[in-house]
Amino acid sequence: MVRSDAALLEDDLAAFLASLLTPAAPRSVYAAALGRSLYAPVADAVGSKVGQAALAPAAGAPADRAPLRPSMVFWAYRNYRGFPDAAGDEASAADLAAVRRAAVAVRVLLKAAVALDDIQDGSGVRYGEAALHVTHGVPLALNTGSLLITAALEHAAEPAVVRSLLRSVGRGFTGQAVDVSTRTELTRAELLAAPLAERVAFWESVAALKTGTLFRMPLDAAVAALGVVEDERRVLDGAMRDLGLASQLFNDLTDFVPEYGGRGTHEDYGQLSNRVFLELLDTAPAGGPGPEQLVGARLKEFVLGHPDLRPTLLRLASQAVELKRSAMEAVRGVCRSERSARYFDVTIERKGHLIDRLHATLVKGEGA
Asked: Are 294 and 192 in contact, with CB atoms under 8 Å apart?
C-alpha cells in the first residue's frame, strides 16, 4: 500500500505539472521566452529526483516509473480512514480527493522551499544536481519558487488545508529569516555573548521552525483535511517537532562525519547556526582566539581542534536517536492498527535509519 499510494502521488504530481505548463501559441517569440523562463525552471524544480531517499518501484511497474517517495499525508489518510481491503472501510471519495490534493501541495511547497533556500544559503548543489538558481539564474529561481507556492496553495483547494499550509509556510519563512541572521555581525555577537542554555534555546527555536515544519506540514495538512480530533493533532504535532529536531541534529553532525557529509564535510562555517558550534563556544582553549574572533577559517580551526569535539558529537548524536525514538513511539500510540504503524515506519525510516547509523559510526570512533 505504501508503494501504491506513493505511485498515485507521482501520477498526481505529473498531472499538476502538466497543468502549469500550458503551451502558448506555437513558434512565437513569447512562447519561446515562456518556455525558457517559466516552464523549464518549473519542470526542473518539481521534477528533480536525484539523491532523494526513495523506495524502488514495485515489481512489474513500468520501466520508466520513477523511484517512489512515501508521503506522510497518505499515512494519515490510511491511519484515520483505513486501508481499501480492511473490513468496514468507509473512506469517502471526497476525503481521498482532498488528501491527494494536499499531498501534491505539500510536495510542491517543499520543492519551492528548496529553490528559495538554496539561493539564501548559497548552495550550488542539491541532491547531487546543480541547484535551480545555478541552472536558471537567481531571478528565475526566485520567480519559480514564488509561483510554486501560489500554485500549491490554489491546488490544495480545501479551506482548512490551505489555512494549515499557510501557517506552515509562515513558520518556514520565519525560521529561515532567523537562521540567515546568524551570518550577521549583530546576531553573531549576541550568540557569542549568550549563555549555553540560551544558545541551545535559539537553536531549538530555529530548528523547530525550519526542519520541524518539513515534518509537521504534511501531517498538519492531512489532519486538517480529515478533521482529526484535537488531542491527537497535538500528539502528532509534538512528535513531528521532535523528528525535526532529530533531523537537524543529524544535519549538523554530518558536517563532521565524512561518510555522511561527503564533499561538504568541514565546509559550513559561514554562520553560527550549527549546534556543535554553539555547544563549544563556552570552552575556548586557553591562549586561542576569543569567541568574537571565531569567523570562517578561525571558527573551523577552533572547532576541529577542540578537545571536547568528539564527546560533543557523540552526546548530540545520542540526543538525536532519543528524539527520534520518542517521536516514533508517540505516533505509534495513535496508530489505529499494526498495519498503519508499519506504514509509518517505512515512511520515516527512509532517512530515520541514518540517525541511528550516524550514532553507531561515532560510537565506533569515526568522524570529525
From this structure: yes
Rounded to whole angstroms, how far apart are CA atoms 255 and 251? 7
DSSP 125: E
27/325 Cα distance (integer angstroms): 57
Instruction: Give residue-wise pLDDT tens across range 48-69.
Output: 654 455 555 555 554 455 567 7
Please measure the distance between the N-terminal and C-terminal CA atoms of the chain and give it in whole angstroms: 40
pLDDT tens string 174-224: 999 999 998 888 998 899 889 999 999 999 999 999 999 999 999 999 999
- Angle, helices 338-363 vs 72-81, to 10°: value is 140
By the 10 Å C-beta count (0-12 exposed, 13-18 middle, 19+ buried), 100 is classed as buried
In angstroms, the CA 246 to CA 204 distance is 10
Which residues make Cβ contacts (< 8 Å) with residue 95, sequence separation at least 6? Answer: 77, 81, 225, 226
State pTM to two decimals: 0.87
* Contacting residues for 280 by C-beta, under 8 A, at least 6 apart: 302, 303, 306, 308, 309, 312
3-state DSSP helix/strand/coil % of the chain, to nearest 5: 75, 0, 25
Eight-state DSSP code of residue 68: B
**CA pair distance 271, 300, nearest whole angstrom:** 11
Which residue carries 560510537 as its cell? Answer: 363
The whole-number pLDDT of residue 91 equals 57
The residue to which cell 521566452 is assigned: 33
